[in-house]
Write a structure and sequence with these properties.
The protein is an alpha+beta fold and 174 residues long. Helix content is 54%, strand content 10%.
């Protein structure tokens, strides 16, 4: 019985941010997309538990919430890393060898075609069709900062800087 109580307390705590977001949006089902956007901002993705909880709280079918979450490319149903790396593979970037940048990121972060997020949830790699900066090809965006005419060496340096900062912050927190 105590184990069940502890699990329930943990779930209530985990979903606390969802309750705040739902209340802020007046538990209005017509605000489903902004609710899901805010929830994803907090949790970095939409888990099955969160989708079910939002649906139940808004008194709408889980299938409807799931349908919205899977229809829009903006939503993710799997965990994303703290740092998002978006690599353009549009025509201009492809011609300018964006695949070399992809190889660099994958090697540096031990990612593959199937594995897009590092085990420590520090990085997620997203390949996109276009970033709208064709004149800067090849382009990579790391944490919403655009890096144009990027080279593998520059990308490795950027990733090394983030990794070093994260390690420093983790040590300072101890």
């Amino acid at each position: 019985m105590q184990e069940t109580i502890e699990k329930t307390k943990a779930m209530v705590k985990h979903l606390g941010a969802v309750n705040v977001i739902l209340k802020k949006n007046n538990n209005d089902p017509s605000r489903l997309i902004p609710i899901l956007q805010e929830v994803q901002e907090v949790y970095k993705y939409l888990s099955k538990d969160v989708i079910s909880y939002v649906a139940t709280s808004l008194d709408i079918p889980v299938a409807h919430v799931y349908g919205v979450a899977t229809f829009y490319a903006h939503f993710s149903l799997s965990p994303k890393g703290k740092h998002i790396v978006r690599l353009c593979d549009g025509t201009a970037c492809h011609v300018k060898k964006s695949h070399d940048l992809l190889d660099c990121v994958c090697k540096k972060l031990a990612l593959t075609e199937e594995k897009k997020t590092t085990d420590d949830l520090m990085f997620t790699l997203e390949q996109v069709s276009c970033l709208g900066a064709c004149g800067l090809a090849p382009v990579i965006v790391i944490d919403d900062i655009v890096h144009g005419q990027a080279t593998p060496a520059q990308v490795e340096e950027l990733l090394d800087g983030i990794i070093a900062r994260e390690k420093s912050e983790a040590q300072a927190a101890q």
